[in-house]
Amino acid sequence: MRLSVDLVIFTIIKESLNILLIKRGGEPFKGSHALPGGGVHEDEGIEAAARRELEEETGLKNVFLEQLFTFGEDPKRDPRNRVVSIAYYSLVSHETKPKAGDDAADAFWLPVSELSKIKLAFDHDQIIKTALERLLGKIVYAPIAHELLPREFTLTALKKTYETILGKTLDKGNFFNYVKKRGLVVSVDKKAESEGGRPAALYRFNKRVKDISDFMSHFRSAIC
After folding, report:
1. Which domains does the chain have, with CATH numbers?
2. Are 204 and 153 within 8 A, CB to CB?
3. pLDDT bracket for residue 144 (50, 70, 90)
4. What pTM did the predictor assign?
5. Residues 69-78: pLDDT tens digits?
């Protein structure tokens, strides 16, 4: 039995949730789309292996990773032999640019809405489904939006981030008033660049908010 890792990396591009995929350069499933990942070496930790594979296949490094689930119930999930995979997931800024390397022929962002148009290698469709369920569940109790936004952002950008992940429209007035009243964000006394119209104020996340779980609990009932 072999131990491997798979990585589900999300970002938001043009108000669309995207996932990082590679095009496999070798067998099995040569030429097919897949998640970044690979085998764990005997002399390394599991998360270290995940970081190594991510950097080798896509060029991404210094990415916050959270363990998702262990996949191995199906003994034939890999046609070569019995493989148990530990999956990780993460959210990164859209400014992150993947670059193929190692045994990946290509690395690219794909809108999640287009996943149904392609065939994925192994059981990666199930891994992605599990990651999406975790993401949808977590957004209402943890401030994960800060992983997707630059250090300074507009409230409109923050609102669109939540709307993209939740798949629903939030009331602008309620959302803006709530995040400011609860102190999740603070003004940086700067304006966003604008090609026309009134420049929007810029904010950053308030590091002094200590009870995030309480904030997000109220957020879920008040906004969602």
Report:
1. 2-138 (3.90.79.10), 151-222 (1.10.10.10)
2. yes
3. confident
4. 0.83
5. 999 999 999 9
